Amino acid sequence: MPKPPRHAALQTLPVLLAIVLGTLALSACGGGNKPGAGATTPVPGSAAPALLDQIKALEASGQLPQLDRSSSIPGPDANHNGVRDDIEAWIAALPITDKQKKAALQKARGNQKMLLVDLTDKAALQALGDEGAAGIACLADVFMPNYQDGYKLRAKIEALTANTKERARRYLDYNRARSGSVTRLPDGNTCEE
Q1: Most buried in the list 47, 52, 56, 81, measured by CB within 10 Å?
Q2: CB 190 within 8 A of CB 134
Q3: Per-residue confidence at 45, pLDDT binned at 50, 70, 90?
Q4: In whole angstroms, what is the distance from residue 114 CA to residue 136 CA?
Q5: Contact (Cβ atoms closer than 8 angstroms) between residue 86 and residue 68
């Protein structure tokens, strides 16, 4: 069986992002179809069944990662490494080097902390902003000379981390709490060893 292109898994994630955002939008708007708009049966309070079926089929085929959709903000982390288990499994399956996987886990850990930090603790918020910048720089560095691949992976990790309404709201709250703060990309090697 021929090997998929090096970044085949990365190419399917824009579809995932569109589906996740579409699901969130549908559920936020009540999820039902309006009568007269070509719909037959409204589904109050949930995404359209066809969309959910498509997501499940893509997950079952392995084209999309199977994500925890519980209402828990942190989600499951059985090994207590600071990365949600489903995101860790997704990173482990990516067709990238071990060094790139370590960098992705570092960024995922930072994103997870963003969901859990005390939003009233300005020092903790600043430290987390600095840690996040280090994770971004690390991802770019390990993908050199194709640093844009690192930035794309960062965005996908961010989207997967905020994959439920509760997590997305918490991530928005974190960003509001950080609004007006300044963080710069650090110099040198920022990858955790």
Answers
A1: 47
A2: yes
A3: low
A4: 14
A5: yes
